[in-house]
Design goal:
N-(1-d-carboxylethyl)-l-norvaline Dehydrogenase, domain 2, 2 domains, 9 strands, 14% strand
């Protein structure tokens, strides 16, 4: 297939790479041109200096950028993706953004005879590199079926959750769950250390029981060692939690734990940890 990928950050770079390695013809765009040049050297394909040029002739276009404004920046305007797409093409937004933006983009796409899917991902940089992401999709089933084979090159679970916006709503649930789990893990591990237990041994044993989680298996040991210079950044988690809290105000949900953890992440940022992994919550407990 002829594909385009807009946004080559820590997630988009390897995701686009999987598409190229699968044999698709991939054209990329990135605001920092040197990143697009590096991608082309590694995977082949082509790069363009404007989204409209990158998507010309593409069957499916994927966006993976930072937030709502970034998505609009590459999708809208005379040089944006929506202006350059051919009729019947599909626009897939992998950005973790608001459900409102997803519905907005679907309406814009429909007006131009295009398909649209909101498809935020979970699994972090490692999941993107290893092609084992969870892809949560909102949109029409026929559009989903057409784009699903391409997304399976980097998604181990690619699921249609409902109409446009449903993928983003499901991703909000994911971030709400992670916020509580990571804070609970931080409290438990800090307690283990202060109680004189071998925290690594505790983590290893408990990962075989009812407390098992991805965070426990993949972050406990680095949390104990105080290593946070990797993974999903606190800055990005706060962006995601702001989306969750805004949506909760809209639908009447109560998110007391998520709101508290958001405040704790604000304290991590104040310590200069905006780019630390989200597991850095334990630092507030280990070094009050």
């Amino acid at each position: 297939m002829k594909l385009a990928f807009l946004g080559l950050g820590v997630m988009g770079y390897p995701m686009a790479g999987h598409l190229a390695k699968a044999g698709h013809e991939v054209t990329v765009f990135n605001r920092t041109a040197s990143k697009a040049e590096a991608w082309c050297r590694e995977y082949g394909g082509a790069r363009r200096d404007a989204p409209a040029d990158a998507v010309a002739g593409a069957d499916i276009v994927f966006i993976c950028v930072g937030n709502d404004d970034d998505v609009r920046g590459v999708a809208d305007g005379p040089r944006g993706a929506l202006a350059g797409l051919k009729a019947d093409a599909i626009l897939v937004d992998h950005t973790t953004a608001s459900a409102g933006l997803a519905r907005e983009l679907e309406q814009q796409a429909k007006a131009k005879g295009l398909g649209f899917l909101d498809a935020p991902v979970s699994g972090g940089q490692a999941g993107a590199v290893n092609g084992r992401l969870t892809v949560l999709v909102g949109g029409e089933e026929a559009t989903f079926r057409a784009a699903e084979p391409a997304m399976r090159h980097y998604g181990q679970a690619v699921t249609l959750m409902g109409p446009a916006g449903s993928g983003q709503l499901a991703k909000m649930v994911n971030q709400i769950l992670i916020a509580g789990i990571v804070q609970g893990l931080a409290e438990g591990l800090n307690f283990a250390v202060r109680a004189g237990l071998d925290a690594n041994q505790v983590a290893g044993v408990l990962s075989k029981g009812a407390a098992q989680s991805w965070q426990l298996e993949n972050r406990a040991h680095t949390m104990i060692d105080g290593k946070f210079d990797f993974g999903f950044a606190v800055d990005w988690m706060r962006k995601d939690l702001a989306i969750c809290l805004e949506e909760a105000r809209r639908n009447g949900s109560s998110l007391p734990v998520a709101a508290l953890v958001d405040q704790l992440y604000q304290r991590v940022q104040a310590r200069g940890g905006g780019r630390w992994d989200t597991s850095s919550l334990i630092q507030l407990l280990a070094e009050p």
